[in-house]
Amino acid sequence: MKFSCSSLPVLFKKLIKDQKSRIDRTTKAFESIMSGATEDALETDNDQEEASAKFAVLKGRDHIQKKIGELANEADGQVTLFLGRYGILHLCRSPSIDEINSAAERGVIVKVLAQLDRRTLKFFDQLHESIEIRHSDEVNSLGVLKDQSDVIQFLFVEQNPVGRGREDSALVVSSEVFASSHYEFMMAIWNRAVDFNSAKKRFTEERIVDPLRLTIGEGSFLEQFREALDFSGELPDEDTPFNPDSFLASSNEINQARAALQDGTVFSLQQLGIDITTMLRQVGHRIGSELAFSLRNIEGHVEFLSELMDWWEYAGLGELEYDTVPFFHIKVNLTHPPVAEEEVLPLWELDDGIIEGALRARYPEESNVRVRREDGQNDEELWRYTLIFVEENED
After folding, report:
1. For the whole model, what pTM was predicted?
2. Is 368 a residue whose pLDDT tops 80?
């Protein structure tokens, strides 16, 4: 069987003509679509490529750690590592730790957020001395943030902390917008986290020495200070002429009010906006949380509560009784109950705060025990703490 066709030059000319016709139709259609487009849509491809985010997925711990090392080498300003509980093990078993330390040596600010564990403390010694380490119970995931431009977020991590991590996976994102939001999230945790030296004493010395952050008060302290000094003058919007007589008269009055504050009474502190009641309860919460930490090895609910109640009563703070109807609850009676006098230091807030702090430390919100502080039901109790065991209640 034979076939005939045009000569090769004629055939190529026909193909080229067809291609040109298609290109012309595509060009006209594109111009018609873009005729109403804004200037933002007409930017160059290069600008679009620079502004768009870039994504990549890495599989395997070795590849992820290699990428971490590359980001550390590229970093100019700051690198933040989210190491969770066992991320420091992965870091120390890969060459990326050398890249991290090298970045710190050349002046890059390196920060580490981790959840410390007794078994991993020694590995943090392998980090460069300039690297700042903080502990937070909120850090469970692993990730890296570089220069607010690149982010590595682990998607899956092998449960075995000493495994090879062949199934580990991570998302790599190059986006300033995404990195900026990630940075804000990191700083929110960072500001609440505890420095490494204080946090590790939980494991080396069996005690909590974290800094205690107190709520001093609220509202405008300037206004409260002016009221305490009985200074009613309005603040000027512009410079005013100096009046010596008025200045001396008002100064004498203010100095007398200031001298009255110098007595240092509880009422004086309240006038300055300092909430002693809240501060003492926060101190009580801290004492209670440390007490619960010391009793953490006591597993049974009844055994823990019995030791807590014995300690509190032995300290001379009052008497505690418990009952089981309708729910398990602890009745509180203080040795020094509240009094309605402004000059009295409200130490009952401290005493009761110890009980509340210990219970809430032992039974946090995510546990299966709900802690409620309720008013007393009769004259035999000031208030009570009710413990609702969710699983038992559901059964």
Report:
1. 0.61
2. yes
